Every structure is written in C-alpha cells, then in structure tokens.
From TrEMBL:
Listed GO CC annotations: plasma membrane
Cross-referenced InterPro entries: Bac_export_3
Keyword Flavoprotein listed: no
Localization in the cell: Cell membrane
Superkingdom to which the source organism belongs: Bacteria
TM annotation in the entry: 12-39, 51-70
One GO-annotated biological process of the protein: protein secretion
Protein name (Swiss-Prot/TrEMBL): Flagellar biosynthetic protein FliQ
Length: 87
C-alpha cells in the first residue's frame, strides 16, 4: 500500500465516522442546550436532570437512524473489502 492510498483510506474512514456519529451528537447537543435553558430559568441545579433527557433523546435518535447508520457502515465496509489489494 502506497502512502497516498493509506491517506485516502484514513480520510474516508474519519469522514464516515463523523457522518455516522453526527446525528446523535447533534441531538445530544440540542437536548443539552434545551435542558440547560430550562435549568437556568427554573434554577434547578441537579446533574441528573440534564443527563436523563440527553440519554433518552440520543437513544431515540439511535433507534430512528439505525437502519441508515447500518447501511452507511456496510457500504463503507464493502468498499474497503472490494478495493483491498492482496499482495
């Protein structure tokens, strides 16, 4: 494997990882912002109040996006195996 192929493989791997993780991270960030705003308005300062809604929101997004995530991962794996060169 030459260096340009290795760099392209690393770049595509990192891009795929970012695309796969982004829905859950964005929903977790939005839920954290909403809960933080509610906590600031009501002056409730408990750590578990912010943790549980974020966990539930991220789990719901994972369940909703799971078919798409698996398709992306399988496509990436298929491309990697098809393009691999055996010496």
């Amino acid at each position: 494997m030459d260096p340009s192929t290795a760099i392209d493989l690393c770049r595509s791997t990192l891009l795929t990882a970012v695309v796969i993780a982004s829905p859950m991270l964005l929903v977790g960030m939005a839920a954290g912002l909403a809960v933080g705003l509610i906590q600031a308005l009501t002056q409730i300062q408990d750590q578990t109040v912010s943790f549980v809604p974020k966990l539930l929101a991220m789990a719901a997004v994972l369940v909703a996006c799971l078919p798409w995530l698996l398709t992306r991962m399988l496509d990436f794996t298929r491309i990697i195996f098809e393009n691999s060169v055996v010496p």
